[in-house]
Write a structure and sequence with these properties.
The complex is a heterotrimer. Chain A has seven helices and two strands; from the N terminus they run αααααββαα. Helix content of chain A is 74%, strand content 2%. Chain A is mainly alpha-helical. The longest helix of chain B has 25 residues. Chain C is globular and about 70 Å long. Chain C starts with 18 loop residues before the first helix and ends with a helix. Chain C contains 18 helices and no strands. In chain C, 68% of the residues lie in helices and 0% in strands. Classes of the chains: A mainly alpha, B mainly alpha, C mainly alpha. Chains B and C meet through α3 of B and α7, α8 and α10 of C.
Chain lengths: 228, 96, 559
């Protein structure tokens, strides 16, 4: 019981801080494992259609362009660095540095979402929003002089994947906001910073998803030179 | 239990960041070339390397307990099962 | 009798009163009650739908329901029974109650997340129920495409999103269990000293965590596809309906093991207690749970033999499906071996367990018929399939659930249920079950397809038998509801360990657990089920003496 008296951050049902921290870490990783399987379903659909209609995937991916997606990739990698530095600051008990890095991470995350919004707007203007505003390219090309329904499937998947990723970003931003407020209120110390670490794990995971989405969605058509 | 409190030197974070940026540039560069069926494996290999770097260092998996490492792998392992058996079906359909 | 004969002053049920102490509780034992009440309601709702189905099938032309209402009824029965009853049944009620008690912890690792998971469950359940009751849903619980994505006019979009929400409740429960079992075991509680129920729940939780998200994303894709009119799954729009089946069964086959594995765990607990013996081959039974969980992920294709899947893939799935029978058989043989030369007593939980053994064996072996590709061509989508999985799900999982509820009822409530009524209901259930579902094997073999509201007249005799059986089954289910409720107030006060069972939940908690379970963190010094080995005759003699003195028979075995 003595451990409880010393550390108010240890909840009553844990024996000590070590057990609490290990439980939280394991729980977070289990949660991330479910997230992996959640995205796995989307990646499976992506892979299957890419295997079935590779020409559609190349051409439609080419239409996305790589500039904005590339910028966003860089932004997210930067945010992962700032997040890692934030956890580092928490480990060393540097409150100001922690809050600073958290804010930087949030700023980069918001930038990512802003760029994403610009992209979505472009897709709308290019009539590439399935179900709401979509125009087929007809004839598709010399080999397929007719409407190819998988064109829409590509963009549908694009919106599903980036949309769900975007929702995760929004969730991540909310979590970071809470963590920043907690840090501001001196909730953390060199012995207790588990929430910062957990938020970091989540943020890095969302970054990893994008690491896969970028080449799969944007770069697939990068070698496309027109023609067939 | 030193693993739980391992403080990674800042130098490593910056090195990883640098590698990630370089790899991003590389994957964009190499996507300009058409390797046919190898396009996807090439792009995926680079992405896997990047993801592994993030997990090992930014997410401290390298310094975590065996148990954590096991659960990190389990997610990807079961994802592999999903892909493997689904494609067992599609790749062996005689009429395709 | 003894001072045991009164409940202690302070226990978890009187720790607080009022709705807040229940609806905002983080105590795993109270959350178990929240689940118990919710899923009991669901069980009777799903049972009601089943009863209407059986009434409709009393006559070949069906006189009770319109065809579309019939479709809505079997969909409601499937969705409610699978997602709202079977999946949460043992894990969320008995599991929530027992996991911390069995590992010797004060609570699950994440008590608040545990409460949240119940709220997610309730929100999802009420939402889907509202949909089912307001407009209905007629896709079957499988939501097969393209019917669900492009043709059904019922509330598919909303229902799939409801199932999506529900999935997270299941994921969070599993996550909690795994972390608790890994990190919160009491000193001395090594992996191979854990009760087998914990092994089973651990394996179940792995499936919940790793399979449920795939169902979730599949449901989202169906919903969005309906909304956007894009064909991921609809072949008319360039989609692939078999892809849907792959993704759906990647979850839904392992989900079958989510339903049966915890039941197997309960069986191990009860059988060793009532045979007064350690479970034979403890390590094999423990590891076989994990084997079932992992193999369960590799066999989903056996639901798809006739879908147009590649026959080579079919052969692979068929072979692995046979392999799953191995760990299941390991369990069954070891349970039987546990009974051998055991001192078996036939109290209510044990009657349910014996029912389980018989019914599960029939269900499991008929599963092998269906796993064989050639035979499945004939039996696919017939009543043979219905009978097979009801033998596993109702004869197996539900029987085990009832065994567990009766077994731990004294610990959960501090009171005994009426033993005579319990035995009667166990036997009524067994008879009603056989009468309901055995004829369906024959019907299916003769070719009666599932999900039809009418059938040819020569099937009527067997259908009447089945419907008659279902009324007996209904009586068997209502009886426990009544006498369990009765026992809450009038039941005899239970001693701390009425079955003289081994395990921390019996030995270290007092008659009814206190709010934080253990006054002192227990230390485990012996293996699970360490029942003293004594000659059967001696135990029997003491038992007879006990009966002669009018003591409860289960108290008489003085070991």
């Amino acid at each position: 019981m003595s451990a409880h008296a010393h550390n108010p951050a240890v909840l009553h049902h844990f024996a000590d801080a070590e057990q609490q921290k290990e439980s939280a870490t394991l729980g977070m990783w289990l949660f991330l494992a479910t997230e992996v399987l959640l995205f796995a379903g989307l990646f499976l659909v992506y892979t299957l259609f890419r295997w079935k209609v590779p020409y559609v995937w190349v051409k439609e991916s080419y239409l996305l362009g790589i500039t904005l997606g590339g910028i966003n990739t860089a932004v997210l990698i930067c945010s992962s660095l700032t997040m890692a530095l934030g956890v580092h600051a928490a480990q060393e008990g540097k409150k100001k540095a922690l809050i600073g890095w958290l804010l930087a991470t949030m700023l980069l995350g918001a930038t990512f979402l802003g760029v994403k919004a610009i992209e979505y707007h472009e897709h709308w203007e290019h009539h590439k929003v399935p179900g709401l505003n979509f125009t087929y390219t007809v004839p598709y090309d010399n080999a397929h002089p007719y409407k190819v329904p998988e064109q829409q499937v590509f963009h549908f998947l694009y919106f599903c994947m980036t949309g769900i990723h975007g929702l995760h970003m929004v969730a991540g931003l909310s979590i970071l906001t809470v963590i920043a407020i907690m840090a501001y209120r001196d909730k953390f110390s060199t012995t207790y910073y588990t929430p910062v670490e957990m938020a970091g794990l989540y943020w890095h995971f969302v970054d990893i998803v994008w690491v896969f989405l970028f080449p799969l969605l944007y770069l697939t058509g990068n070698h496309y030179t027109g023609g067939h | 239990m030193s693993s739980a409190h391992h403080v990674v030197p800042l130098r490593i974070y910056f090195t990883i960041f640098f590698l990630l940026i370089v790899l991003t540039g590389f994957t964009v560069f190499i996507s300009k070339f058409d390797f046919g069926v190898m396009n996807l494996p090439v792009a995926l290999s680079i992405a896997i390397v990047k993801a592994t770097l993030i997990m090992l260092f930014f997410m401290h998996v390298k310094y975590s307990s065996r148990l954590t490492q096991l659960f990190v792998l389990s997610g990807f392992f079961f994802m592999g099962i999903l892909f493997f058996f689904t494609f067992c079906d599609y790749l062996t359909r005689a009429w395709n | 009798m003894t001072p045991e004969n009164a409940l202690p002053k302070e226990h978890y049920l009187n720790h607080g009163y009022g709705w807040k102490s229940w609806l905002l509780t983080t105590d795993h034992k109270r959350i178990a009650w929240l689940y118990l009440v919710s899923i009991t309601l669901m069980f009777f709702l799903g049972g009601f739908a089943a009863f209407l189905i059986r009434l409709q099938l009393l006559t070949p032309q069906g006189e009770i329901l319109r065809n579309d209402t019939y479709n809505k009824m079997f969909t409601m029965h499937g969705v409610v029974m699978i997602f709202f009853f079977l999946i949460p049944s043992i894990p969320a009620t008995l599991g929530n109650f027992l996991v911390p008690l069995m590992v010797g912890a004060k609570d699950l690792a994440f008590p608040k997340i545990n409460l949240i998971s119940w709220y997610i469950f309730i929100i999802g359940a009420l939402y889907v129920l509202w949909i089912i009751l307001s407009g209905g849903l007629e896709t079957g619980w499988t939501f097969y495409t393209p019917y669900s994505t492009s043709y059904s006019t019922s509330n598919v979009t909303a229902a799939t999103l409801g199932v999506f929400v529900l999935g997270f409740s299941s994921i969070l429960t599993g996550l909690n269990f795994i972390v608790t079992i890994h990190k919160m075991r009491a000193p001395g509680m090594t992996w191979f000293r854990m009760p087998l129920l914990l092994w089973a729940l651990y394996a179940t939780s792995l499936i919940q965590i790793l399979a449920t998200p795939v169902l979730a994303i599949t449901m989202v894709l169906v919903a969005v596809e309906r909304f956007a009119g894009v064909g991921i799954f609809d072949p008319a729009l360039g989609g692939d309906p078999i892809l849907y089946q792959h993704m759906f069964w990647f979850y839904s086959h392992p989900a079958v093991y989510i339903m049966i594995l915890p039941g197997m765990g309960v069986i191990s607990e009860v059988i060793s207690c009532f045979a007064r013996k350690r479970v034979f081959g403890y390590k094999f039974v423990a590891v076989s749970s994990l084997m079932i969980a992992v193999f369960g992920f590799l066999v989903w294709g056996h639901h798809m033999y006739v879908s147009g899947m590649s026959p080579y893939a079919g052969m692979t799935f068929s072979l692995i499906s046979y392999l799953v029978a191995v760990p299941s058989a390991v369990k069954t043989f070891n349970w039987t071996a546990t009974l051998y030369k055991g001192s078996v007593s036939y109290d209510t939980p044990m009657l349910y367990v014996l029912g389980f053994l018989g019914l599960f064996m029939v269900g499991g072996l008929t599963g092998l018929f269906l796993a064989s590709m050639g035979l499945d061509q004939h039996l696919h989508d017939t009543y043979f399939v219905i009978a097979h999985f009801h033998f596993i799900m109702v004869g197996g999982a539900v029987m085990a659930y009832f065994a567990g509820i009766h077994f731990w009822w004294p610990k959960m409530t501090g009171r005994m249920y009426p033993e005579a009524w319990g035995r009667l209901s166990a036997m009524i259930l067994f008879i009603g079950f056989i009468l309901t579902f055995f004829p369906q094997f024959i019907l299916g073999y003769m070719g009666m397809p599932r999900r039809y509201s009418v059938y040819v007249p020569e099937f009527q005799t067997l259908n009447v038998l089945s419907t008659a059986g279902s009324t007996i089954l209904a009586v068997g289910y209502v009886m426990p509801l009544v006498y369990m409720l009765w026992s809450l107030k009038y039941g005899e006060i239970a001693p701390a360990n009425p079955w003289r069972a081994k395990g921390l939940e019996w030995e270290a908690t007092g008659p009814i657990p206190a709010w934080d379970n253990f006054p002192v963190t227990p230390t485990v010094t012996e293996d699970a089920y360490n029942y003293p080995q004594r000659p059967v005759a001696e135990i029997e003699r003491e038992r007879a003496a006990g009966r002669a003195e009018g003591r409860m028979p289960e108290l008489a075995s003085g070991d």
